[in-house]
Structure formats: structure tokens, C-alpha cells
Write a structure and sequence with these properties.
The complex is a heterodimer of chains A (412) and B (74). By secondary structure, chain A is an alpha/beta fold. Helix content of chain A is 43%, strand content 21%. The chains are: A alpha/beta (412), B alpha+beta (74).
Chain lengths: 412, 74
């Protein structure tokens, strides 16, 4: 049958022939309107990987019987968390879209995770070596946790046992702290970006952050091996305690966190002082306080008692008696020494006395002379010292008389 | 901003008063003042720890920016 001769029934609202552009737009709109084709997960093998200078990444996702063009835009490629490689088994998430200009259907990849143990292991080792080489796991980078956090951030799923366990333990141990839960997706391709956002908003307003997730499969925990998330934890203003999965699971996040806890419950215990111990410490301080003030008062009282003892009549009596015996001994000593000394010096004393007698003015007076004196006893030796009207005294051997000078001296 | 000293500061101050008294070199009036201060700090620490009601909030992004709303715990 000649295709040209095919006739179509006209349908209302549809032109007899579409332009290519019109058709491509219809396909695009149909694809975009179908909810099954947006936010989908697709598993396949990476091939024909082509990173472009612009930062976008193009590759083909294929399996045994089909293939699909994929594009990762630069902003999504930057936060992918690991490096895609040809042959890698991955699960990608994104939206299907149509590019009318090239007539192609593409998957716009938003996030990806390795799939299969081999791919996981390779990506994990690669990220771990890269960050270790940069020193992000170095012990010197680890910060101590605050002893008394006022606010504690919890980055985890807001549903499930983990957040409940953490809150319960913190409430029992340290009810003073304010807990800020920053909800995040904890598995799937969108989880790394979600965890980073939650960490970013909470780490500036708390004293310490717990990043936690319950146990799960290797795939479930994969988001905690994300390079971007690890860097965000390293850059967090508040110290970070990680508690991812079971004790045997060690993720990149565990390496980069300031402290790794075996479980979410252990993380809660690590960030909080125990109220029971604190209460014992407070009570101990209270008891010491009372003990010390009693000790201080006892010491003052003892000093006061000692002073009163020294002031008592009995003590005074003792003091007097002690002093008296000293005095008596001294007196006895003196009594025995004095007569001997007196006798020894008596001869000298008598000789000195005789010389004093000869030199004494008294001896002169006894021979009938008189001495003129000023009223202050100063001897007047020269007539020139005296003026008319002066009051003088004249000393005889039996007393003094007052005289007034009537006339100044006569010429001899 | 005159903020009440927090628990950590109060506990440190309480233990400092015990240390000051235990040196035993304070004059009596000063020792009594330190004791009174310590007793106040002791009551304060005790009350904070015994009476605190834990606050649990959820941080969410809203149109007006980040907001905290109560996080339900049973």
C-alpha cells in the first residue's frame, strides 16, 4: 500500500500534519507529565563516560539489552560523592527528559550510588585514600567534645528508633541540654545532599552534633561514604560524633568525625555528662562547703579559747609568781654583792670627797667670802657685767640676800 | 546582655568557693561571705539539675527561613 495514499480522519483540535517541533514538544510534555518517569531509580552499567570541560558529565547507562543516555549537570556532578568509572555498576536517580533539538530521550541524573559489593568497595577505597592523603582523618584534627553542652544537634531520620534512643538517653542523663533535631534522609541517592543540608543548618547553632543512623545493608549506609558529606563534617563548626550502623560498620564519615561512637546510644552518652554523677559532685561540694566553714569556725574558736586562757586570773597568777621568783633571785644576788663593792670603793670615795670639799665654793664661803650671783645662780665674776638697777643675790655661808645695784662701778 | 550564669559556670564557681574555704587562710568575715556565696551556688546547681525539663525541637526550613518547632517525644 502506498503510504502517500493513506488518509486520516480529521480529529477535532489536531492539525492534519504536525511539524517535527510540534511532535517533539508533545513527546516531551507527555514524558514530563508522567509521574513514573520523574524521580526514578535506574540500575545499570556506566559506559562511554565523557566528562565535559563545562563540568557536566555524559555517559550511557546500559544493561544486556538496552541503553539510555545520561547527563549529570555540573552542580550535581560536584556533589556526587564518588567518581563514576566505565564499567561501574550503579544506581542512579533522576528525571527522564526529552531534548527536541537532538530528538533524544535522556536521564538527567541527580545522584548516584555504586551497586554491588565490588563497585562499593572500589569507590569506598578510592574516597578513603583521597581524604586520608589530604589529612582529613588525622588525629590532630580531632576536637574534644564539650563537657557541658548547652545545645546538642542530632542529624538523623526523624522517624524510627535512632532519634528516639538518642533523645531518651539525653533526657535521662542530661536534661539541661536543648536538643535540636535536624531531620535528614539517611539512605538513597538523595541522602548525602540531605545530610549535608541538615548538618549545615544545625552545626552553627549547637555545641556538639551527633550524626547517626541505625544498622542497614552496605547499600543503605552508602551515603555515609559520600565525599562531600565527609568534607562538610570536617568543616563543621561544632564537633561531630558519628554513629553509623552497627559497631562493625565503618564509613568515611566515621573516619572524619571528631569522635566515632559504636552506636547511636553510645553517641548520646558520649556527648552528655551523667546527671547522677553531677548531682553527686554538687552534693559533695555542698558537704565540703559546710565542713570547711565548720573547720574555719572551730579554728577561730580555738584561737579565742587560747587567748582567754592567757587572760585568766590563774594564768596571771602564774605569771606573777614566775616573775617574782626571778626578782627574788636577782635581789639575793645583788644583796650579797653590794656590801663587798661598797667596802672596796669606800676609801676612794672618801678621798674624792675630800678633794671636792677643797674645791667647793662652800669651802670658800666658810672662810668668810661672799659670792654675787644672778637670780638664776650664774656667778657674777666681773663688775663690768653689772648695770645700775640689776637685781643680784649675794651668797654667804649661812644664806642669800637680795640686793639692787645702785651705782655702776667706781674707778679703782 | 546580662545572662544568668549557666550550669557549667555555676558548678565551677561552687567548686572554687570550696577550694577558697579549704585553704583556710581567709579572715572569718570573708570566709562567711564565701560560704554564703557557695551555698547560693549549691542551691542553684541543684535546682538546675533537678528541675530542668528537656527541650527537644525540630529544625525545619520554612518560607520565612529556618524555624524550630517542638519535636514530639513520648
Amino acid at each position: 500500500m502506498d503510504p502517500i495514499s493513506v488518509t486520516w480522519e480529521n480529529r477535532p483540535g489536531v492539525p492534519p500534519a504536525l511539524t517535527v517541533t510540534q511532535l517533539a514538544r508533545i513527546i516531551r510534555d507527555t514524558v514530563r507529565a508522567n509521574p513514573i518517569l520523574s524521580r526514578i531509580l535506574v540500575r545499570g552499567e556506566v559506559s562511554n563516560l565523557q566528562p565535559a570541560p563545562s563540568g557536566h558529565v555524559f555517559f550511557t547507562l546500559k544493561d544486556a539489552t538496552a541503553q539510555l543516555s545520561c547527563t549529570v549537570f555540573r552542580e550535581d556532578a560536584e556533589v556526587l560523592g564518588f567518581d563514576l568509572e566505565d564499567g561501574m555498576d550503579v544506581v542512579v536517580s533522576g528525571d527522564v527528559d526529552v531534548f527536541p533539538r537532538r530528538g533524544s530521550v535522556q536521564l538527567l541524573v541527580k545522584a548516584a550510588t555504586p551497586a554491588g559489593v565490588g563497585a562499593f568497595w572500589a569507590a569506598y577505597q578510592k574516597t578513603r585514600k583521597k581524604l586520608a592523603a589530604e589529612g582529613l582523618f588525622d588525629a590532630v584534627r580531632k576536637r574534644p567534645l564539650p563537657s557541658f553542652p548547652r545545645t546538642i544537634g542530632v542529624v538523623t531520620s526523624e522517624i524510627g528508633a535512632v532519634v528516639h534512643d538518642i533523645v531518651t538517653i539525653l533526657r535521662r542523663r542530661y536534661p539541661i541540654a536543648h536538643i535540636v533535631v535536624a531531620p535528614a534522609l539517611v539512605q538513597g541517592p538523595e541522602a548525602p545532599a540531605s545530610l549535608r543540608r541538615a548538618l549545615a543548618v544545625v552545626s552553627d547553632r549547637v555545641d556538639v552534633v551527633i550524626v547517626a543512623r541505625g544498622g542497614g545493608s552496605l547499600e543503605d549506609l552508602w551515603c555515609f561514604n559520600d565525599e562531600g558529606l565527609a568534607r562538610a563534617i570536617a568543616a563543621s563548626r561544632a564537633p561531630v560524633v558519628s554513629a553509623i550502623g552497627h559497631e562493625t560498620d565503618v564509613t568515611i564519615v566515621d573516619f572524619v568525625a571528631d569522635v566515632r561512637a559504636a552506636t547511636p546510644s553510645a553517641a548520646a552518652e558520649l556527648v552528655s555528662p551523667d546527671a547522677t554523677e553531677l548531682m553527686a559532685r554538687i552534693n559533695g561540694a555542698g558537704r565540703s562547703l559546710i565542713g570547711e566553714i565548720h573547720e574555719a569556725l572551730r579554728s577561730v574558736r580555738n584561737r579565742a579559747m587560747a587567748l582567754r586562757e592567757r587572760l585568766s586570773p590563774r594564768a596571771l597568777q602564774r605569771g606573777v609568781e614566775t616573775n617574782r621568783s626571778v626578782l627574788e633571785r636577782s635581789f639575793a644576788g645583788l644583796s650579797s654583792v653590794a656590801p663587798r663593792e661598797v667596802t672596796r670603793h669606800r676609801g676612794r670615795l672618801e678621798a674624792i670627797g675630800r678633794r671636792l670639799d677643797v674645791l667647793s665654793p662652800l669651802a670658800t664661803l666658810q672662810r668668810g667670802y661672799a659670792i654675787a650671783e644672778r637670780e638664776d645662780g650664774h656667778v657674777v665674776a666681773h663688775a663690768a657685767e653689772v648695770e645700775s638697777g640689776d637685781a643680784l643675790a649675794v651668797r654667804f655661808q649661812d644664806g642669800r640676800i637680795r640686793v639692787h645695784v645702785n651705782e655702776e662701778m667706781e674707778e679703782p | 546582655m546580662t545572662e544568668e550564669p549557666n550550669f557549667e559556670e555555676s558548678l565551677a564557681a561552687l567548686e572554687a568557693t570550696v577550694d577558697a574555704l579549704s585553704r583556710g587562710d581567709l579572715p572569718l568575715d570573708r570566709a562567711l561571705a564565701v560560704f554564703e556565696e557557695g551555698l547560693g551556688l549549691y542551691r542553684r546547681c541543684h535546682a538546675i539539675l533537678a528541675e530542668s525539663e528537656q527541650r527537644v525541637t525540630k529544625l525545619i526550613a520554612a518560607a520565612e527561613g529556618l524555624i524550630e518547632e517542638p519535636f514530639p517525644v513520648e
